[in-house]
Design brief:
The complex is a heterodimer. Chain A is mainly α. Chain A contains 7 helices and no strands. The chains are: A mainly alpha, B mainly alpha.
Amino acid sequence: MSSDPLDSLRQAWVDQTIELTQLEADELRRGASRLERQVRWRNLGEYLAGVLVVGFFAGTAWESSDPVTQAGALLVAAGALSIMGTLWRRGGVAPMPPEAVAQQCLAWRRQELERQRALLAGVWRWYLGPLVPGLGLLLLARALQADGPGELAAVGAVALLCALLFGGVGRMNRAAARSLEAELAALREEP
Amino acid sequence: VDPETDQRERYRRVTAAHGDAIARLARSLEADPQRRIELVQEIHLQLWRSLARFDGRCSERTWVFRVAHNVAASHVDAERRAGRTCPLDGDPPDPTLPSDVIERRQAVAVVQRLVRGLPPLDRQVVLLYLEGLEAAEIGEITGASANAVAIRLHRVKALLARRFQEKGP
């Protein structure tokens, strides 16, 4: 390196041998269509899953003669509808406008972090919470119908497993949200 | 000129001028050759889409660097979430090359490794500095204040100088 290492370094940087890419109009159009298709399929997948859950629990409510089971199943279906509504409102459906990616990097980063943080931090409110009353009632219905202490213990074990699962998911999401919040706070303190 | 032709012409012009910087950005952030190609293509695709709405409120170069760095930052986040952190060791330099060429390649490799470990804003400032941009334009691209850019540039230059004094190029 010369006496001014950083100027030499900048020169070495721009002198790197690279393969220049330039996509043809057809490739770009195909790529754009592919992006739109991916978004459409992802949305379709989410809604199909939601429709299946709603359909299954609505069917359970229809077929059951037990009022507690019916109420539980309908509440789970309502919870799934609520989750689908939240996904819709939060922009799972609408792709970003194409010029959004040309905003200043800090604004882009804040927007990305804030979006992810809001989804993770509110996971109990919008994702887990809406399912809890229905699942609770369904478990209660099974407990009320239990034939002996063995079956009751099995229902208890399932309830414990659900609680651990929901608690674990909630805890992991909160930890991830806190990490994003710390990153956002650091960005806000930028001089 | 119809909008699509205008978009296509603008895309050709900006990628002829800055396509090499996009490739260097991808190379500095993604070690896996296949995923690097995908990253470059993603940047080009997003650039082409965005150019349909280019409003002239900043230069084309500023626009290109914003798109490239934003797409790259999202790529790095996605790779991190997926637990993919490929080391940027690259191939060992060809020993038959002249020693000054080997030295320059090793210096670039050292910087690439250093850049990968930096927080996003620092990384963007370093890479834009290495591309030869001045502090004012780096501020316009990143949205960081002149003071923030100056602080980072000072810190990064000191870090680079120290790294090369310790190790040699």
